[in-house]
Design brief:
Layout: H1 3-6, E1 28-32, H2 35-45, E2 49-53, E3 59-60, E4 82-83, E5 89-94, H3 99-109, E6 114-117, H4 123-136, E7 142-144, H5 152-160, H6 167-194, H7 205-221, E8 226-236, E9 251-259, E10 262-264, E11 283-284, H8 288-297, E12 302-315, H9 323-334, H10 338-350, H11 366-380, H12 416-419, H13 425-440, E13 446-458, E14 464-476, E15 510-522, H14 531-541, H15 549-558, E16 562-565, E17 568-571, H16 573-585, H17 592-606, H18 612-621, H19 637-642, H20 650-653, E18 655-660, E19 666-672, E20 675-682, E21 685-690, H21 702-709, E22 716-720, E23 727-733, E24 736-742, H22 754-763, E25 769-771, H23 783-790, E26 794-798, E27 805-811, E28 814-819, E29 822-825, H24 831-834, H25 837-845, E30 861-865, E31 872-878, E32 881-885, E33 890-892, H26 904-917, E34 947-950, H27 952-961
Parallel strand pairs: 1-2, 1-6, 6-7, 10-11
Antiparallel strand pairs: 3-5, 4-5, 5-34, 8-9, 8-15, 9-10, 9-14, 12-13, 12-15, 13-14, 16-17, 18-19, 19-20, 20-21, 22-23, 23-24, 24-25, 26-27, 27-28, 28-29, 30-31, 31-32, 32-33
Helix pairs in contact: 4-6, 6-17, 6-18, 7-15, 9-14, 10-13, 10-15
Length: 965
């Protein structure tokens, strides 16, 4: 982006500055991260300021050997980018895509009197500011400008109250970056060697993957237990002459909880092995037969109220949002991914709608509290506002109160209605949720009553049966008027505003059972993690930072360790192998307490209580650091990795035992270099089977395994081709089932060289193959069907005008006709064998259609209206598989998305992600770049690769030398 586009000069004049600042011609360059923020704040600062964006980081550690400058290529540490033998100096290079940006910023610096580094107010922003300082090497005074919201008042105040660069914050961020590089570059090669190439390990990503894998292991080990009880509809007697009170129902639900004083077992009484957790004789497991017998024996019997317990109910408001709770709530309430939530929040912040969205704090400023209380009073009345201002404190590991909570920006909050016309649908929904939560945080408690009732009746068979009923009535909604938090339905949560009203009951009151139904239940395995619940778990354990959770979750999906089935996170078999290796040989690196403890140690560096170089040296080479058993006390990361590699048995690591089959053979999943497969040893021979990519590990049962083994990897033999004599087989392939012929092996002389063998194989004839039609099944396809498929492409005839041959072919994207270079789609696969020359010529006589208009097919599924575009969403079959579309955007279904179970929420989420990426860039000839009107011309080709081998001492001196006087 050109400087003319990024730099914006406003019309206002900066007020209340020092006399020197107000002198004629005094100019300042303000650098922020994003062009959006630059355009937004420039008018607030006025004509004395030039606002430019760095577009994120401008330099980083080398990404590969090509990035390493020539003078360092011979160094042993160059690949790592960190000189571990010389104080852990980091080698930074300007990334290739930022060289022009650096040139532009340097040019702008020549025409200003001061430099304001106005990057984000966190460690990352402080580090970007330091990198800018080190790269630009300004000769003018430098100020650090910090703000937490993009409003005129906040921006002008930040410009008046600048500070120096926070060296400790920079140290803390740089330590994290170097630590992650050491971790990744030392451990990842072990995975390449022992599991498969191109895998990666990371300080937080590996722990996050372990959490998901452990949950899947729990599900795989889980044994369901069954238990029964009785659900009842109880009925009070109508009192003669009493008025009908619609608020007090006559009927209410109850459930059997005890028989003859022995409490009935419920789901929580069973362990994951399907057995009772305790052998306590007071807990009784009711069988189906007993439940049905008791239900029958209780019919027409009288019941009475044994006890009534009523208590006051109070619910305090939720704290304002911080990064992690915003991600969780947006995931639960709106089905947003963490990445989508943060992307939208970033836009809201940069455009001045909310405060900074990367924060661990739940506190509100005095002005924000005043604004929330004032607005709540106006909207709901004084009685709905808390008697005194509320302030919230954190009770989570590694909390940092560095910033304010996420809230609407400004001294007076704009209501959702006031900003609706300025925001798109996703932005509006997120803003509304943040606004509601902030207002609700200053409102009064919700109040009500809860009632617990015990009801007793005697069966005709003599047992005393106790039923229980509970109710909740909200008498004063309080903050619930403004906001109700979403609940995780998978864990059986109940909304805070849900009411279940019971009639007015008294001890000894008579009741009758209008309905008695035996109910059977089965215990369920723990639910898989979703993005919101994984964020909650990471926060609970104190692992990583909330600001990084979105990128962590995206990374473990992009690396293939985790995939989504609906909203559930499912680990791949590769993840099982990687985590198994880490647990056995690098256990401390994926230990939850150790990883959380490391965050505490990094915080000590941020607070200036620990020296960066010494800490890294102890971590890498070993030393007295951390708790007993820490990496440093075990000899350091380098020793740990080097001493473990040779002890790792790759076959053992890549073997995940599942169960024993009926004959006692152990069935295992093997993770090979080309993917996972099933294996068992039968009579000394290895039997293998392909594993479907979309089969979750906990659903791989013995029954499914036997079915997979029944389809051998070499394929199902269909018969012999009567023409060629070759065997015809049906196989499962990477792109689906297909048929092929088995050709005789070519004879290669034993004394042939490797090159000669390779050449002979290359010249050998290739077998014919043909993909199965969608109407075909690999289990039922016949030899006749296979020979038809192998006969393709079929010659339809010749075009009488051009003489070109017309063929019918089945391609990866469906059936089509081909004449020379002109291809035309066919609407059905059957046409491949039935279309005549006359019909083909008719198709070619019509104008060629492209894209959506070509041979339109009916949708595979209709879903409903997209909440953003307000257009109907349908699932269609496309060139690259099924996709969802609203007519404007198309989004391919992901691994784990099934057409039958695809929901409106999931479809809209896929479209939203596609919409956020924008249309694919069009290729066009490079235009001649106009001369810049805001910066001096820089001669092309003169920019050298900028590097820095940095030390803390150098950093301190540079920041001190260039600070504002």
């Amino acid at each position: 982006m050109s400087g003319e586009q990024d730099s914006v000069a406003g019309a206002r004049t900066k007020k209340n500055g020092a006399s020197a600042d107000n002198s004629a011609g005094h100019r300042r360059l303000v650098i922020v991260e994003s062009p959006t923020k630059a355009r937004k704040i420039a008018p607030y600062l006025g004509s004395g300021y030039v606002v430019e964006s760095s577009v994120g980081h401008i330099r980083d550690l080398p990404r590969g050997a090509a990035d390493v400058p020539a003078q360092y290529k011979g160094e042993a540490w160059a690949r790592l980018g960190v000189d571990v033998d010389n104080g852990f100096k980091a080698l930074y290079v300007v990334t290739p895509d930022k060289k022009s940006k650096v040139t532009e910023l340097k040019s702008l610096l020549k025409d200003v009197d001061e430099l304001y580094l106005a990057t984000d107010p966190d460690r990352e922003g402080e580090a970007i500011a330091w990198h800018l300082l080190e790269t630009l090497k300004p000769k003018v005074p430098v100020r650090r400008m910090v703000f937490h919201e993009v409003t005129e008042a906040a921006i002008r105040a930040a410009a008046e109250s600048t500070r120096e660069l926070d060296v400790d914050l920079v140290d803390a961020q740089e330590t994290r970056r170097i630590l992650d590089r050491l971790y990744g570059y030392e451990v990842s090669p072990v995975l390449w060697k022992k599991v498969m190439p191109k895998l990666s390990a990371g300080r937080v990503q590996s722990v996050a993957t372990r959490i998901v894998v452990e949950r899947e292991r729990e599900r795989m080990r889980f044994t369901s237990a069954s238990y029964w009880d009785i659900s009842a509809t109880m009925e009070t007697s109508a009192v003669a002459g009493a008025s009908e009170d619609t608020a007090s129902p006559r009927n209410f639900p109850a459930r059997l909880v005890a028989v003859d004083g022995a409490r009935l077992a419920t789901g929580r009484d069973f362990g994951s092995d399907g057995q009772l957790k305790t052998s306590n004789n007071e807990v009784r497991v009711l069988a189906e037969a007993d439940a049905r017998r008791l239900a029958e024996a209780l019919k027409q019997r009288d019941f009475k109220v044994a006890s009534v317990e009523e208590k006051p109910y109070t619910r305090k408001p939720y704290a304002p949002f911080m990064t992690s709770t915003l991600q969780q709530e947006a995931g639960r309430k709106m089905r947003f991914t963490s990445e989508r939530t943060m992307r939208i929040a970033q836009k809201l912040y940069e455009n001045g709608y909310i405060t900074y969205m990367r924060t661990d704090s739940t506190t509100l400023s005095e002005s924000a509290i005043s604004a929330a209380r004032s607005q709540a009073t106006q909207l709901y009345g004084k009685e709905y506002v808390s008697p005194s201002p509320r302030q919230y404190t954190r009770k989570v590991k590694n909390a940092q109160e560095a910033h304010e909570a996420i809230r609407p920006s400004g001294e007076v909050f704009r209501t959702p209605g006031q900003v609706a016309s300025e925001l798109d649908t996703d932005e509006y929904r997120l803003y509304e949720m943040i606004w509601q939560r902030t207002i609700a945080s200053q409102m009064a408690d919700a109040k009500g009553t809860t009632m617990s009732v015990r009801i007793v009746g005697n069966a005709t068979s003599g047992e005393e049966c106790t039923f229980a009923a509970s109710g909740r009535t909200i008498t004063f909604a309080g903050f619930l008027k403004a906001y109700v938090e979403a609940v995780d339905t998978e864990t059986g949560g109940e909304a805070d505003d849900k009411q279940s009203r019971l009639p007015v009951l008294e001890k000894g009151q008579g009741l009758t059972a209008a309905e008695l139904s035996p109910d059977g239940h089965n215990t369920s395995p723990p639910a898989r993690y979703s993005e919101p619940s994984l964020v909650s778990k990471l926060e609970e354990l104190g692992i990583g930072r909330p600001s990084t959770y979105a990128s962590i979750i995206k990374t473990i999906q992009d690396r293939g360790y985790v995939w989504k089935k609906g909203s559930a996170l499912v680990p791949s078999w590769v993840a099982f192998a990687v985590i198994g290796l880490m647990e056995r040989h690098f256990e401390r690196l994926v230990d939850y307490d150790f990883t959380a403890g490391m965050e505490d140690e990094l915080d000590r560096i941020a607070n200036g209580e620990e020296q960066r170089g010494q800490w890294l040296s102890k971590f890498y080479f070993g030393g007295d650091m951390g708790v007993d058993g820490s990496i440093g006390r075990l000899g350091g990361l380098k020793k740990l990795v080097e001493g473990s590699v040779e002890d790792i048995d790759a076959r053992e690591i890549n073997s995940i035992p599942l169960f024993s089959d009926e004959n006692g053979h152990t069935v295992v999943v093997r993770v090979g270099r080309y993917g996972p497969y099933l294996e068992r040893e039968v009579d000394g021979n290895s039997q293998r089977a392909n594993l479907p990519e979309d089969l979750p590990p906990d659903e791989l049962t013995q029954e499914i395994a036997e079915k997979l083994f029944a389809t051998p990897q070499e394929g199902r033999t269909l018969g012999t081709d009567p023409v060629s004599g070759h065997e015809i087989v049906a196989k499962e392939g990477r792109f689906g089932p297909y048929v092929t012929e088995v050709l005789p092996e070519i004879e290669i002389p034993e004394d042939a060289t490797a090159a000669q063998k390779k050449s002979a194989k290359a010249k050998a004839p290739k077998p014919r193959t043909g993909s199965l039609f969608k109407s075909m099944d690999i289990e039922t396809i016949t030899l006749e069907d296979a020979l038809k498929l192998l006969s393709l492409p079929r010659v339809v005839g010749k075009d009488p005008e051009s003489g070109d041959e017309i063929t019918a072919q089945n391609g990866r994207y469906g059936p089509y006709l081909k004449k020379g270079t002109d291809s035309r789609s066919l609407s059905t696969e059957d046409q491949l064998f039935s279309i005549t020359l006359e019909e083909a010529l008719k198709i070619y006589a019509e104008p060629k259609q492209r894209g959506r208009s070509a041979t339109a097919k009916p949708p595979l599924k209709e879903l409903g209206e997209d909440p953003v575009s307000k257009k109907p969403m349908v699932v269609k079959d496309g060139r690259f598989g099924p996709y969802v579309t609203d007519g404007e955007y198309n989004a391919t279904l992901r691994k784990g998305d099934e057409i039958e179970s695809l929901t409106v929420e999931r479809a809209s989420e896929l479209l939203a992600e596609k919409r956020a990426k924008g249309p694919a860039p069009k290729r066009k000839a490079p235009a001649r770049k106009p001369a810049s009107t805001t910066a001096k011309t820089v001669k092309a080709g003169t920019t050298k690769k900028t590097t820095a081998a940095k030390t803390t001492a150098a950093k301190r001196s540079s920041s001190t030398a260039t600070k504002a006087k």
